[in-house]
Amino acid sequence: MNKDMEWLHRGYGKNHVKLLHLRREGPVHTIKEYEVNTALTLDSDKDYIVGDNSDIIATDSQKNTVYILAKNHGVKSPEDFALLLCSHFLTKYSHVTSVKVDVEEYPWRRLVTEGKAHNHAFLFSPEVLHTCSVTQARGGHPQVSTGLEGMRVLKTTQSSFTNFVSDEFRSLPDMEDRLFSTVVSASWQYADVTDIDFGRIWIRMQKIIYDKFAGPPDYGIYSPSVQNTVFLIQDAALSEIPQITQVKVTMPNKHYFGVDLSKFPEVGTTKNDEVFLPVDKPAGSITSTLGRKMPSKL
Predict the structure, then answer these.
(1) Active-site residue numbers?
(2) What's the CATH number where 219 sits?
(3) Which residues lie below 8 Å from residue 290, measured CB to CB, with a gap of 6+?
């Protein structure tokens, strides 16, 4: 390689490894379905530079490793399984310098029939996707980030948007009461991975989002802007979950505009609060990342 060049990144792996793990405990069965991506970086670049494959752990071997570890160790959570894979690759192969594993969990829940949870039947329930990403370099600690995707929510009141910049480009009027709908994406990072109950924190994060978006069931929670709702979620997460160091939340607008029925004087009405037009594009998108302050280094 030319002496004036350097690697900014290199690595290879297997993407979209599909896995369904079934655990049988007598008549009661439990399933976990994952999609796994693995990526390895080696201490040598001879595979790139001269085509020497002698150090390559084939991507097919990486795929097989996913299945074998799932069989031998079972699966508890996406985070725990990704940590297991990282540890395996670094322990087994001394020439692997770093590992990255991404896992997405497919949303299955137990079917309820006759008012009772079924022993062995499940319903695909895509309310929200659970994702995670784990990276670990040799000699370093694993870095774990959990993600939440596709949580589409809507409330019909207790939301407004007023007093924003008014200039020659503005066409949107003040909205004192509006429908508020979004598709929540969130991710959070952990300070450490020792004795972490990832499943419990996953459930806690969902509850925080529900609470700060919807509020109590009888009277809700007022939202003066999407930005404020994003902050309330992040502030609560960092206050209530000491194991996490930062939270990113993204909320794109999913607009529902009232249909103007005043154009139909014989059959319409001058006031319409019941019929709305869903509009997907264009859409605003509000995002921020809130983290704990790091101690100053003086």
Answers:
(1) 14, 59, 255
(2) 3.10.270.10
(3) 231, 234, 235, 238, 246, 247, 248
